[in-house]
Amino acid sequence: MTLYTEYYNEFQSKYLMYIPLTIFLQSCIGSIAAMFILMNGLDTIFSLVQLFLCVVLSMFYNAAILAQLKGKIVFNMLILSLFFNVLFIIINAS
Fold first, then answer.
1. Mean pLDDT, contiguous 10-residue spans, the chain (94 residues)
2. What local confidence, expressed as pLDDT, does residue 94 receive?
3. Coil, strand, or helix at residue 70?
4. Domain span at residue 57?
5. Which residues have C-beta within 8 Å of that of residue 74, sequence separation ≥ 6?
6. Cβ(91)–Cβ(50) under 8 Å?
């Protein structure tokens, strides 16, 4: 069994418990990423694209929960959102 499958099964088994925790986690990481992007300035297209992706992915995750989509879609959106937001933090923190 892969690591993804293990985490997905854990997420699925305790779905209602993980919803508020992941909303807080993802929203905090997304806002930190947006802060770092804005601190570097929006003088290039690359910065604008980063900010756009940061906001859109964070909103898509919250919308997936509110729309009560399937657990696999919600889990994939969480992983995608966290990956890109952490990537943006790493890019803009240095």
1. 89 92 94 94 91 94 93 94 96 88
2. 78
3. coil
4. 20-93
5. 61, 64, 65
6. yes
Residues 60 and 51: their CA atoms lie apart, in Å, by: 14
Is residue 12 included in any domain, yes or no? no
Whether 73 maps to a domain, the answer reads yes
Secondary structure (DSSP) of 6-54: HHHHHHHHTHHHHHHHHHHHHHHHHHHHHHHHHHT-S-SHHHHHHHHHH
Number of domains in the chain: 1
Q: What's the full length of the chain, in residues?
A: 94
pLDDT for residue 11 = 92
Supply the pLDDT for residue 41. Answer: 86
Cβ-based neighbour number of residue 10 at 10 Å: 12
Distances from the Cα of 30 to the Cα of 2, 87, 89, angstroms: 27, 11, 9
